[in-house]
Protein backbone atom coordinates (compact mmCIF):
# COMPACT_ATOMS: atom_id res chain seq x y z
CA UNK A 1 0.00 0.00 0.00
CA UNK A 2 1.37 3.39 -0.96
CA UNK A 3 1.90 6.21 1.48
CA UNK A 4 -0.14 9.40 1.25
CA UNK A 5 0.43 13.03 2.20
CA UNK A 6 -2.30 14.90 4.06
CA UNK A 7 -2.31 18.24 2.22
CA UNK A 8 -4.06 19.88 5.16
CA UNK A 9 -1.04 19.11 7.36
CA UNK A 10 1.79 19.57 4.81
CA UNK A 11 3.67 22.85 5.31
CA UNK A 12 5.67 22.55 2.10
CA UNK A 13 9.08 22.12 3.72
CA UNK A 14 10.09 19.65 0.97
CA UNK A 15 12.17 17.52 3.32
CA UNK A 16 10.47 14.44 1.92
CA UNK A 17 11.09 14.98 -1.79
CA UNK A 18 14.84 14.42 -2.00
CA UNK A 19 14.90 11.56 0.48
CA UNK A 20 12.50 9.29 -1.39
CA UNK A 21 14.52 6.47 -3.04
CA UNK A 22 11.89 6.08 -5.74
CA UNK A 23 11.55 9.79 -6.53
CA UNK A 24 7.84 9.29 -5.96
CA UNK A 25 7.21 12.64 -4.27
CA UNK A 26 6.54 15.73 -6.36
CA UNK A 27 6.05 19.37 -5.43
CA UNK A 28 2.66 20.63 -6.57
CA UNK A 29 1.79 24.09 -7.82
CA UNK A 30 0.55 25.04 -4.36
CA UNK A 31 3.97 24.26 -2.87
CA UNK A 32 2.79 21.18 -1.04
CA UNK A 33 3.93 17.66 -1.89
CA UNK A 34 2.12 14.63 -3.24
CA UNK A 35 3.11 10.98 -3.59
CA UNK A 36 2.67 9.07 -6.84
CA UNK A 37 1.17 5.76 -5.64
CA UNK A 38 2.44 4.01 -8.76
CA UNK A 39 6.05 4.74 -7.74
CA UNK A 40 5.82 4.45 -3.93
CA UNK A 41 7.21 1.21 -2.45
CA UNK A 42 5.99 2.03 1.07
CA UNK A 43 9.43 2.17 2.67
CA UNK A 44 8.26 4.80 5.15
CA UNK A 45 11.37 6.95 4.85
CA UNK A 46 9.41 10.08 3.97
CA UNK A 47 7.12 9.67 6.96
CA UNK A 48 10.14 9.47 9.28
CA UNK A 49 11.43 12.88 8.19
CA UNK A 50 8.19 14.85 7.96
CA UNK A 51 8.18 17.44 10.77
CA UNK A 52 4.40 17.64 10.97
CA UNK A 53 3.50 13.94 10.59
CA UNK A 54 1.62 14.60 7.37
CA UNK A 55 2.65 11.31 5.76
CA UNK A 56 1.08 7.94 6.54
CA UNK A 57 0.05 4.75 4.76
CA UNK A 58 -3.04 5.39 2.66
CA UNK A 59 -6.21 4.06 4.22
S1 LIG B 1 7.10 5.57 1.50
FE1 LIG B 1 9.18 5.45 0.59
S2 LIG B 1 8.83 5.11 -1.60
FE2 LIG B 1 6.88 5.84 -0.73
S3 LIG B 1 6.91 8.05 -1.08
FE3 LIG B 1 7.73 7.67 1.00
S4 LIG B 1 9.98 7.55 0.75
FE4 LIG B 1 9.02 7.32 -1.28
S1 LIG C 1 8.15 16.53 4.80
FE1 LIG C 1 5.96 16.69 5.39
S2 LIG C 1 5.56 18.90 5.63
FE2 LIG C 1 7.49 18.67 4.46
S3 LIG C 1 6.84 18.76 2.31
FE3 LIG C 1 6.89 16.57 2.90
S4 LIG C 1 4.78 16.10 3.56
FE4 LIG C 1 5.00 18.34 3.52
Write down the CATH class: Alpha Beta
> What is the average of the pLDDT values?
97
Largest sheet: 2 strands, antiparallel
Overall form: globular
Write the layout of secondary structure elements.
Layout lengths: L2 E3 L9 H5 L5 E3 L5 E3 L9 H5 L5 E3 L2
Antiparallel strand pairs: 1-4, 2-3
Bound molecules: iron/sulfur cluster (SF4) (2 copies).
The site of one iron/sulfur cluster has 13 residues, from α2.
Structure in words:
- The protein has 59 residues and is an alpha+beta fold.
- It has two helices and four strands, in the order E-H-E-E-H-E.
- A hairpin with a 5-residue loop joins strand 2 and strand 3.
- The longest helix has 5 residues.
- The model has no long low-confidence stretch (mean pLDDT 97).
- The structure holds iron/sulfur cluster (2 copies).
Based on the model shown, name its key terms:
59 residues, alpha+beta, Alpha-Beta Plaits, two-stranded antiparallel sheet, 17% helix, binds iron/sulfur cluster
Amino acid sequence: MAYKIDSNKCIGCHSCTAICPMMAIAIQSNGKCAIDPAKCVSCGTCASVCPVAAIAPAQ
